[in-house]
Amino acid sequence: MGTEAPGAVAMSTTLGSADGAPQPGIATTAAPTTASSIGGTTAPSNTSLAASSGTKSRGTLTMWSTQEALIGSQCEYANAPVNSLTDPVLPSYLRSGFHCAIGDSSPGFGKGEQCGLCYKVTSLSDDGTAGTPGQRGSAVVMVSNGGAGGDAHFDCILESFQEITGAETGIFDVEFEQVPCDDVTGGPVVINWADQNAYYCKMMFGNIGGWGQLDSVRACLDGSECADMTQHSGATWTGCPTGKGSSMTFELTQRSPAGATSTITCECSDESWPWATGTRCTCPDNFALLENFASKQEDAATEECAEPWAQCGGIGASKGKWNGPICCTEGYSCHSFGEWWASCKPSSWHEHSSPTSPTAGGDTSDAAPDSPAARDVATPKESMSPSAPPEPMRSPLAGGWPAKMPSWLPKPAAGHSVHPWMPTQPGKEGQPMMPEWPPAFGKPFGIPKPAAAEPANP
């Protein structure tokens, strides 16, 4: 770096993985995959982004290497068992050279917490700091490596460096801000990165949309044995529940720069557990953002957030199908169930650890304290609030609807029950009353109130 002659391609000293980054010209072999083709290796679009972190910083930009350096980089995206620069499991940023190594701080690589994040990097001048001629530009890049050294330092692959600076070498002053990874398509892909082992796993979570990284991962074997995983290095995580089973479910949680969280569930049942090395599972949904998500996030601290168990943002919000609150009250986070529904559950909630349909006399100790599951039994274990006494669940046939119900739950039409957790029939403990779908949600699917001489339907 310094005053290299224009046109000379200078490579910086960014380090790869512990095994060492391969030299340019390494032969690569695309791993077999059933994922649909994402098509080509064209550069990600550089259109104006509707959302960003809202924080712009200044730093320096240098040129790292050519595209082959992706294999061996510390985030591990293209390492074995993928061992490819063109595999569709790699987002377009990684396949087209629009990715960079970062330095020690602001942003700092750490053990890989920045892997997959996207930054919009803009050159502040046509010329480099030492007079290298170029043309000021801008590009969105993904973090793929560490080792660039220094503070606020981006060391980018040649294609993205040229897009930002109009040059092939030199040191340039830049402005950067974290932005969503808008060019990620398809769902997240989970890959077994280690040997087939029922007592140890190392999983790669790739093609993460939205803000590009994961804040936490929880894995559940056969829906019952669950464990919170730990980020190991780069974009890989360890700590799956041990043992053998027929399926593994992963709950992926992402946190935005403003602190809002969103969770998606990826159920992998095509292969029994443990998986063979390189086995993949593609999640049905990815993280995404509302067109005006950035402004909503900035207002999240002051706007009215959704109540516990109420509908919130989630995937539907990210696709423009929900314009209500995107945040949840303190202690709760937004959990998505596909693109049509998301609700505020306790931050410690996990789908496979709490029942949602209690049986008569059943234990609800695992249910969230303020959840309908914990309230809708004749003798609830938790009251609806710390200051309110326990109130038994009553069906409309038993003389009325409880006064203290969440605002999001509509009252039923006369003679019907809409409570989705099935209150019991009067005088028949353990025999749930069939609910009817609320009229506001469309055609009724339940059972009307029986005649006085008829017993209630079980």
Automatic annotation (TrEMBL):
GO molecular function term, any single one: cellulose binding
Domain spans labelled Expansin-like EG45: 72-186
Ranges for domain CBM1: 304-345
Gene Ontology CC: one annotated term: extracellular region
Biological processes annotated in GO: carbohydrate metabolic process
InterPro entries listed in its UniProt record: CBD, Expansin, Expansin/allergen_DPBB_dom, RlpA-like_sf
PANTHER family, per database record: EXPANSIN-A15
Protein name: Cellulase
